[in-house]
Specification:
Number of helices: 5
Shape: globular
CATH architecture of one domain: 3-Layer(aba) Sandwich
Distance between the termini: 45 Å
CATH topology of one domain: Glutaredoxin
Strand order of the largest sheet: 1-3-2-4-5
CATH superfamily of one domain: Glutaredoxin
Structural class: alpha/beta
CATH class of one domain: Alpha Beta
Length: 145
């Protein structure tokens, strides 16, 4: 299978997963038992464009933006860690696909993936590049929540 075909297949799988989650209502805030309060989503929220990220930043005090790519191995390894942080902290987590959101990635100086940008009160306060272990990521996020 060619790289283009593999990428197309991965995108189709991700789209199907997102559509299934949306149909099941798993994107609704506050309806899951692991919700940490204050209306913070307990699953990462896919963001499309600057308006989507701005909306999340306005709605939540602390937001962890995960700039990733489907083809990135370290991004795939980081995904369960990011999901745990979303479920177990008071930070909202935004997932930003750099391939689909190149202008947004450029706006935040993302030159490699994964890049995690932590926002507090709408302003970027921390940047972590590369795969991170859960304890470091949790400690960084909890310092602002």
């Amino acid at each position: 299978m060619t790289d283009d075909a593999e990428l197309a297949e991965i995108r189709e799988q991700k789209l199907a997963e997102l559509q299934e989650r949306a149909a099941d209502g798993r994107f609704d805030e506050g309806d899951d038992e692991t919700d940490t309060g204050a209306g913070t989503p307990d699953v990462p929220q896919s963001v499309d464009g600057a308006a989507g990220l701005d909306s999340l930043l306005e709605a939540h005090d602390v937001v962890l933006a995960d700039f990733y790519a489907d083809w990135c191995g370290p991004c795939q390894m980081l995904e369960p860690v990011v999901e745990t942080v979303a479920a177990e902290t008071d930070a909202a987590v935004a997932k930003v696909d750099v391939d689909a959101n190149q202008p947004l990635a450029a706006e935040y100086g993302v030159r490699g993936v994964p890049t995690l940008v932590l926002f507090a009160d709408g302003q970027p306060v921390e940047r972590l590049v590369g795969a991170q272990d859960e304890s470091r990521l949790r400690t960084t996020v909890e310092a602002y929540t």
